[in-house]
Amino acid sequence: MSGHSKWSKVKHQKAGTDAVKSAAFTRISRGITIAVREGGGITDPEKNYHLRLAIEKAREVNMPKDTIDRAIVRASGGDAGSFERLTYEGFGPGGSAFIIEAQTDNRARTVSQIKYVLEKNKASLSTPGSVKYLFQTKMQLDPSVEAKVRELVSELENLEDITSVQTNV
C-alpha cells in the first residue's frame, strides 16, 4: 500500500490552515501587546477597554487562552520589542487613494513591503496628509480600475504587519 498514506494528503491541507491561523494569531498578539502598552501597562481587561476588544478578537479566531496570556505577560514585561502603529498614505490606479495602517516592530521592513506591493501595482506612497482629505467623498471608477484597486488592497492586507487598508473607492 505504498503511496496511499493518509498523512501525505492531510499534511498539505494542514499546512495551509496552520499558516492562516499563525498569521491571524501573530496579528492579534501584536494588537494585545499594543493595547496593554497604550493602556498604560494595565493588564486587566475590565480596566483596559482596548485590551478587552483585542481579547474578544482573539476569541473570535479561537486563539488559545495560553497564547493570549503569554501576549499580555510579554507586553507588561517589556520584552515584546517596541511595536508601533504607523499610518501611510498612497495613490493607486486611476487616482484612487489609500490609507494603510500597520503595527510593526520594524518600520523599515514594513515600509519596504508596502512600497514593493504598491509599485508592483503601479501605485505609490504619498506625503502624510495628502490623502486623508479625500475620504470625505467616494470616487466612482470604471470596473477594470476598480478590480485593480481591489487586487492592490488584497495584497496589502496579506502583508503580516498590516492591520487595515482604507480606500476612497
Automatic annotation (TrEMBL):
What keywords appear on the UniProt entry? Transcription, Transcription regulation
Query: What region holds the TACO1/YebC-like N-terminal domain?
Result: 5-78
User: InterPro entries from the xrefs?
Assistant: Integrase-like_N, TACO1_YebC-like_2nd/3rd_dom, TACO1_YebC_N, Transcrip_reg_TACO1-like, Transcrip_reg_TACO1-like_dom3, YebC-like
Question: GO terms for CC?
Answer: cytoplasm
Pinpoint the TACO1/YebC-like second and third domain residues.
84-139
Alphabetical list of Gene3D superfamilies matching this protein: 1.10.10.200, 3.30.70.980
Report the SUPFAM superfamilies cross-referenced here. Answer: YebC-like
Family, according to the entry, reads as follows: Belongs to the TACO1 family.
Protein's UniProt name = Transcriptional regulator
Species source reads: Candidatus Gottesmanbacteria bacterium RIFCSPLOWO2_01_FULL_43_11b
